[in-house]
Design a protein that fits this description.
The complex is a heterodimer of chains A (290) and B (297). Chain A has 290 residues and is mainly alpha-helical. In chain A, 64% of the residues lie in helices and 0% in strands. Helices cover 21% and strands 24% of the residues of chain B. In chain B, the strands form 2 sheets. In chain B, strands 6-5-4-3-2-1-14 form a 7-stranded mixed sheet. In chain B, strands 7-8-9-10-11-12-13 form a 7-stranded mixed sheet. In chain B, helix 6 links the parallel strand 12 and strand 13. Chain B is globular, with a radius of gyration of 19 Å. The chains are: A mainly alpha (290), B alpha/beta (297).
Chain lengths: 290, 297
């Protein structure tokens, strides 16, 4: 998929997915909050940022419009805060409102994909990735970049589940029956896994190369750089803590995807200290979003 | 290069005896390059009088750069007479509208609709061209270059730097210095502050050492206290910008519609008292923009 020939062969499918995402609604909780905040002329900008930052669809769409060629900004915009800084809060507010008006993502879909579990997993992974990025073991990783990468690392899943429901139902059922990781079955039955699909979309929307690479490599090459390591480990620790797992259950034989924070989970636990506040915040968000 | 102010008022035209000296028209600035090319910054109601002055040199080629699409910066466009004159060419430059997902042609299309104006855009007689510009990418207009710089307003606003034969002028359009969206006790405060500092440094560099800075100076510092986030600068913020960017002269514009000529004089006298020009290293003059004022660079 990374070669030019492969990209060309898949261009029609890629275009279909790109168009589909443009019409894709955001999650109910965020849509409801955006509509409420936009009724208040004095809504605090930080509140609106907080809402967008908890919704993968809103975040994707905001980064998509600002990173598209229309402004040709010298640096890629990688976080919601940066988008506010460049565009101003009123423009971000109007964009969020336009995205919210599309409707809400249904809680149940034909693929049987658990949208709520996906959202909680994404939010928890994002928060933990940001925390990991702020630790010295991460090296030079921008915590805001890690947050967005964590939020969007599995975006390909919700895209495939929404737009290839029959195929994706088959993937979910096969993965569960065989006890094989989802991305392996995705590749076998659909021809591309959610990491590839997410990276393809991110590349199409001209997201930063680091973000594209992180989304694309979080399973296959998790230790390739500091950003990917933070997101891949956050993903694994979130599954291990059973926060919004969906069907990707943590297996007792798993070893850490990176040794940057410790070679075993026991040493990582000691190095990181308690993550309870991250889990409880994510669970509280999940509870309030029901 | 010559700079002439045709509209210096913010928000809404305020003709009348109280605004006779500084003028009541909304934003429009004419720039003539050394070679005589016509560049127009914004198309507020001031552009109507500018159009009248062009009648003696028809047909003209006008290059209109729109800082942003708020009414007071575009509402004169349908009355810019050259658009109705065969042989004229009118090139309109500005930012892509990220919310409407349309190009700068939208500033004409939205105004020239049946309900609001008797002529449709398609019926204009001039050769009309529209071009979306990008921050940092210069546009060449005859012997000058115009470089857009993204500034801060409730709608996307491009400031423009115009250079011609070693002389330069920068117009901010409407601009408020970036404000932190977090409270000092919030987790994101320091990170956002650092982002603002980096953005501000980039803007200062883009304006760097300009011969004339024309800046949105809508409010006094006191008035600004209740207008944070409205997207406008103050006299003090414009002077700070001029100093930080190394501007040689500063023209304060976008006067408040409620401010009479006498009040404007009074407010500005206080500004000059607090910022004596001799103390402003490199900044040799601060003045109020007024209709009809011409500055030679």
């Amino acid at each position: 998929m990374t070669t030019a020939a492969a990209t060309n062969e898949q261009a029609p499918a890629q275009q279909r997915l790109v168009r589909a995402v443009e019409k894709m609604p955001a999650f109910p909780k965020a849509v409801q909050q955006v509509l409420a905040l936009c009724r208040d002329i004095n809504c605090p900008p930080r509140d609106l940022v907080g809402v967008i930052e908890h919704d993968p669809v809103l975040t994707v769409k905001l980064l998509r419009v600002i990173n598209s060629a229309s402004y040709g900004l010298p640096n890629k915009v990688t976080s919601v805060n940066q988008a506010v800084l460049y565009l101003g809060i009123n423009t971000v507010k109007n964009l969020a409102l336009a995205f919210a008006m599309i409707g809400v993502l249904p809680a149940r879909n034909a693929a049987g994909f658990e949208v709520q579990a996906y959202l909680v997993h994404s939010v928890a992974t994002a928060a933990l990735a940001r925390y990991l990025a702020s630790r010295p073991q991460a090296g030079e990783v921008d915590p805001d970049d890690a947050y967005v990468a964590g939020l969007l690392h599995d975006f390909g899943k919700v895209v495939m589940a929404t737009h290839l429901p029959e195929e994706y139902r088959n993937v979910l059922e096969t993965a569960e029956a065989e006890g094989v990781p989802l991305h392996v079955v995705e590749r076998r039955l659909i021809g591309a896994d959610h990491a590839e699909v997410g990276a393809m979309l991110a590349r199409h929307w001209q997201f930063s190369p680091a973000l594209v690479s992180c989304i694309g490599n979080h399973h296959e090459n998790p230790d390739m750089d500091g950003l990917t390591a933070c997101v891949a480990l956050a993903n694994q620790l979130t599954r291990r803590a059973a926060v919004g797992n969906g069907r990707h259950v943590f297996h007792p034989d798993e070893v850490p995807v990176t040794t940057r924070f410790g070679s075993e989970f026991a040493s990582i636990d000691i190095a990181l200290g308690s993550l309870d506040s991250i889990w409880s915040t994510a669970r509280a968000y999940a509870e309030s979003a029901k | 290069m010559k700079v002439r102010f045709w509209g210096v008022r913010g928000s809404i035209p305020v003709p009348g005896e109280h605004t006779r000296r500084y003028g009541g028209n909304t934003t429009c600035i004419e720039i003539r390059t050394d070679g005589g090319a016509l560049i127009i910054l914004d198309a507020g109601t001031g552009i109507y009088q500018l159009a009248q002055s062009l009648l003696k040199e028809l047909p003209v080629s006008a290059n209109v750069f729109i800082t942003h699409s708020h009414w007071d910066h575009i509402q004169g466009l349908p009355f810019f007479i050259p658009i109705f004159v065969p042989g004229c060419s009118v090139n309109i430059y500005g930012a892509h509208d990220i919310v409407a997902s349309t190009g700068i042609e939208r500033v004409m299309d939205v105004q020239m609709q049946y309900s609001y104006f008797p002529v449709r855009e398609a019926e204009l007689k001039a050769r009309m061209q529209y071009e979306d510009v990008q921050p940092g990418v210069p546009v060449t207009i005859a012997d000058a270059t115009v470089t857009p710089v993204m500034l801060n307003h409730p709608v996307v606003d491009f400031g423009y730097r115009i250079e011609c034969n070693g002389k330069s002028v920068f117009f901010t359009g409407d601009h408020e210095p970036h404000q932190n969206i977090y409270r000092p006790e919030d987790e994101g405060f320091d990170a956002y502050r650092q982002m603002i500092e980096a953005r501000t440094a980039d803007i200062n560099t883009a304006i760097g050492n300009v011969d004339l800075l024309i800046a949105d100076s809508s409010y006094t510092a006191k008035e600004y206290e209740t207008r944070v986030g409205w997207g406008h600068g103050t006299f003090d913020s414009s002077i700070a910008l001029a100093r930080a960017a190394g501007a040689k002269r500063l023209a304060c514009t976008h006067h408040e519609p409620t401010r009479s000529d006498d009040e404007l004089d009074r407010v500005f006298a206080d500004v000059l008292q607090r910022f004596p020009v001799g103390d402003n290293a490199g900044l040799s003059e601060i003045f109020l923009a007024r209709e009809g004022l011409e500055v030679h660079l």
